[in-house]
Amino acid sequence: MKLAPKRHLLALSATLLAFTTGQAAEAPTAEQMWEIIQQQQQQIEALQQQLNQTDEKVAETDQKVEIAGDMIEQAGGLPAEASWVTRSKIGGYGELHYNDLDSGNEMDFHRFVLFFGHQFTDNIRFFSEVELEHSIAGEGANGEVELEQAFIEFDLGDSHVAKAGLFLMPVGLINETHEPPTFYGVERNAVEKNIIPTTWWEAGGAVRGELAPGFSYDFAVTSGLNVPMTGGNAFKIRNGRQKVSEAAAESLAYTGRLKWTGMPGVELAMSAQYQEDITQGVMDVGATLFEAHADIQRGPFGLRALYARWDLDDAAAIAAADPAAAGRDEQTGWYIEPSVRGRLGDIPGEFGAFVRYDVWDNNSGAANLTEKRQSNLGFNYWPIPDVVLKFDIQRQDNEDGNDVDGFNLGVGYQF
């Protein structure tokens, strides 16, 4: 910039104007005029130095902007670090239980779970769930670390989605949605625990989508169960979960679900699974699961009901493998759970009261009575929607006389 000569002229003009508009009789001497010019020159030089520094800063800023522009252009958008952060998510849930039962008193941080997800593109995403059960894992410890979900999901148009990896089975009410604030009672209900068996995950591929407004479907081909064939837990469904840990895969499982949600607050669904051999090639025992449920929430009133049944082939072979397993060719259960939820006066948050009645039998094919029945009565309190405090009274009536009565306390969260 060439501003210095102009500044000289302006300064000299201002000086002459000041003296000519003053008293003419008091005109400065030549020495005074020279001193004034020297002072003005010093001021001009200081201003020129500041101007040069400003020019240098502007040039430096322009250079940085140009470099940043080149980086964005090369990356095709935002820098990689910002893109990764905005496309990734973390969440989780957990629950602490206190059980005061006839079988003993226990305090247990039952579950600590973290979710990790990432959106690769608008159509491809990743989701995972890692769980620590019973607070500590390792040799001789009660707990274990489990990978419950880890799958890639792909959009197939606007109404259908495919996924591959490790995921929860589309069966029942709480197998896929079991965060503590989403259900009543400290412990998960006995039917979905012992019959379905929640929490149940496998590995493979699946598709889901919308068939018509309100109607949706799921279909999955996955690893299957591998039940023990001897001992007290022989042929019990829950003990057949392999949790995809070097799981035997001689016999795969095929699972389907139809669901209707055409009315707000109403879900009606039925699921089925078939596995050619739940002993993974040892005894050739096929197994079929059928499950149906209703989940209705109309205003403050709620109702959940579920029925589940397993049918295993060859009752005689099962009884021959272990006499204690006689009758396990049929394993059935059902429950009903009415509830009411709403605000209580000026207390912040919401209260919910419920009663649940469970009936289940892992030996329902036996001639002798082996049925178990359990009633729970209690309440949940949500100070905020994602945090819950729970209390319930438990009464169990078993045909074998081993009743388990008492009460349960819990606190849970999700985020």
Q: Which outline best applies?
A: elongated
Determine the structural class based on helices, strands and strand pairing: alpha+beta
Separation of the first and last Cα atoms: 59 Å
- Helix fraction, binned, reads 10-25%
Known CATH architecture of the largest domain:
Beta Barrel
Strand order of the largest sheet: 1-2-3-4-5-6-7-8-9-10-11-12-13-14-15-16
* Highest CATH level, the class of the largest domain: Mainly Beta
Taken in chain order, the helices and strands follow as HHHEEEEEHEEEEEEHEEEEE
User: How many H/I helices?
Assistant: 5
The name of the CATH superfamily of the largest domain reads Porin
Average pLDDT value? Answer: 88
Radius of gyration, taken over Cα atoms and rounded to an integer in Å: 37 Å
Largest sheet: 16 strands, antiparallel, barrel
Tally of distinct domains = 2
Spans of at least 5 consecutive residues with low confidence: 1-25, 71-78
What is the CATH topology assignment of the largest domain? Porin
Number of strands: 16
Work out the strand percent.
35-45%
Walk me through the structure.
The two termini are 59 Å apart. This protein folds into 2 domains: 4-75, no CATH class; 172-414, Porin. It contains 5 helices and 16 strands. Helix content is 20%, strand content 44%. The chain has a 16-stranded antiparallel beta barrel with strand order 1-2-3-4-5-6-7-8-9-10-11-12-13-14-15-16. Residues 1-25 and 71-78 have low confidence and may be disordered. A hairpin with a 7-residue loop joins strand 15 and strand 16. The radius of gyration is 37 Å and the shape is elongated. With 415 residues, it is an alpha+beta fold.
